[in-house]
Design a protein that fits this description.
3 domains; four-stranded antiparallel β-sheet; 14 strands; alpha/beta
């Protein structure tokens, strides 16, 4: 660092009333280190309280837009920034940035030097976010839908609540609560795909409300929740800090779900339109609120809040089969008419939100709407036992005619023998929707592809064949190593269910079952895909 640079550091410290001492490390073996520090715009000093600090000065030619990225780089490397200042460079175009970092030893100095040199070699300016591969516009004869995960930035139509509360909302007359809701609404509206989800500092009242709800729900979960929910709950406690004295951060849950099932979380301001909400599921994105219900009525809420999302939905989205099922509903919604969206909403609502299944002789809940509302959960399960609550089998006519209620308890609930049966029911409905082309999600590009010609279908078949070869190889290795007797025709049977191309109207009305022996394909036949 030249005399001008040292003078600049001295000026910054003088303005702050700091007394500083140049930390001389100029022994013979340290000459190269000293030279590197000086060239890098770095000074080590000890303040008047005896604390070792490092001052870093660097220029930003991209304007102040790069400052947040530079600061994030220091924070990501666990460097404790204690002071930041900026000023215009003498050329009136660039900015000079002054940072102070707590540094305890020479190892910290090496790390700071390395990071500063790295920042010099990268562009911190604005980046063109346009995709490198331009989308080919096709007239599909369908309602417009998002083609890639970034398009969800444009699918944020909030229908109700959000920052505006109805007069009958518990928090309507509470000015502090309304102000807090506006904060969370603004936080969600400025969020863009790819950004880190902001970590919220919840108030004492909010944490106490959360703890009260969690304490009551855990008692009910142990009695009424399905086994998939309970198994994943343990991991959420360990990895995402589910506790009565702590509201989990969406960013922590987002990283957990991505590593578990590939699902992601995106902040949302309130009730989204059904089309926008389902579109998110197509990309394995769940729109999730960060605000909490009003403390005056903790055991029921007329709208989704973080208690509903985190205590109801998250354990099920950590189940790979359920996550796949949810994404299929989302994919089915893309481009369909409003009337067909309403069919999918009914299916989603009475399964994912309020679904009940059997485990042995007991009724268990997998719907998030019930699992996140202690009052409705108790009301429903006790009502099922004494016959005061209407519990119907999951059938098309009953589901489509049932009233969806979002501000009170449901008038009826639907039950299946297993969660798998509920998934098959919804898949059958999804496959019956009128859609001119089939869509698939490409996880490598996080985009939706249109399968509207034979070449695309053959390419997908090749991918599937590669996966089947892996399955066949894995089965053989298990049998050779452990001697486990696995019937490969079971796998073939699973696959055959997905290969039914009979028109929907021509299919039998009976539930999907196992093919007859004469129809049942052998596993080897499933691998015999013609070379393309």
């Amino acid at each position: 660092m030249n005399a001008t640079g040292k003078g600049m550091v001295a000026l910054y410290l003088h303005r702050r009333g700091e007394k500083w001492v140049w930390q001389s490390i100029a022994e013979e073996a340290e000459q190269e280190r000293v030279a590197a520090f000086k060239q890098g715009g770095i000074v080590h000093f000890r303040n008047q309280d005896g604390v070792l600090k490092t001052a870093v000065i660097f220029s930003l030619s991209c304007g102040m837009v790069g400052l947040s990225r530079a600061i994030r780089a220091f924070e990501d490397n666990n460097m404790n920034l204690v002071h930041i200042e900026s000023r215009k460079h003498r050329n009136e175009k660039d900015f000079e940035i002054y940072l102070e970092i707590n540094s305890e030893n020479a190892r910290d100095w090496d790390d700071i030097q390395h990071l500063t040199e790295t920042l010099k070699g990268i562009d911190l300016g604005l980046v063109d976010r346009a995709p490198l591969v331009k989308e080919v516009s096709e007239d599909l004869g369908m309602i417009h839908f998002p083609k890639c995960i970034g398009d969800l930035d444009l699918c944020q139509k909030v229908l109700m609540y959000g920052t505006d509360l109805d007069a009958d909302h518990p928090g309507f007359k509470d000015p502090l609560y309304r102000k807090r809701r506006k904060f969370f609404g603004d936080l969600a509206l400025i969020y863009r795909h790819g950004q880190t989800i902001p970590r919220v500092k919840y108030t004492t009242e909010e944490v106490e409300t959360w703890g009260q709800i969690l304490r009551k729900l855990r008692e009910l979960h142990l009695r009424y929740a399905c086994k998939e929910f309970l198994e994943n709950w343990v991991e959420l406690v360990d990895t995402c800090h589910y506790r009565e004295d702590n509201i989990p951060q969406l960013d922590d849950i987002n990283r957990y779900l991505k590593s578990k099932t590939g699902f992601q979380i995106r902040p949302v301001a309130g009730y989204l339109s059904p089309r926008d909400f389902l579109a998110g599921l197509a990309f394995r994105v769940f729109h999730c609120t960060q605000y909490i219900r009003h403390s005056s009525d903790p055991f029921y809420t007329p709208e989704p809040d973080c208690c509903h999302e985190l205590l109801g939905h998250m354990p099920m989205f950590a189940d790979s089969s359920f996550a796949q099922f949810s994404q299929e509903i989302g994919l089915a919604s893309l481009g369909v008419s409003d009337n067909e969206i309403s069919k999918l909403v009914s299916c989603y609502f009475f399964t994912v939100e309020f679904g009940i299944c059997k485990e042995g002789n007991d009724f268990k809940v997998f719907g998030a709407g019930l699992l996140s509302s202690a009052a409705e959960l108790e009301h429903t399960m006790q009502g099922i036992q004494d016959g005061s609550v209407s519990l119907l089998p999951l059938e098309t006519n009953s589901v489509f005619s049932a009233e969806i209620i979002v501000t009170d308890y449901q008038h009826q609930y639907f039950c299946t023998e297993t969660i798998e049966q509920a998934k098959e029911f919804v898949r059958t409905i999804a496959n019956s929707l009128e859609k001119p082309v089939q869509l698939r999600y490409n996880p490598y590009t996080q985009s939706v592809e249109v399968l509207n010609n034979s070449d695309k279908i053959f390419d997908m078949a090749k991918e599937l064949r590669g996966g089947l070869c892996i399955v066949a190889s894995a089965l053989k290795k298990i049998q050779d190593k452990d001697g486990e007797d696995i019937d490969p025709d079971i796998v073939a049977n699973i696959l055959s269910k997905g290969l039914d191309i009979t028109p929907y109207a021509s299919r039998a009305a009976s539930p999907i079952g196992s093919p007859t022996e004469t129809q049942k394909p052998k596993f080897a036949d499933c691998l015999a895909v013609p070379t393309m």
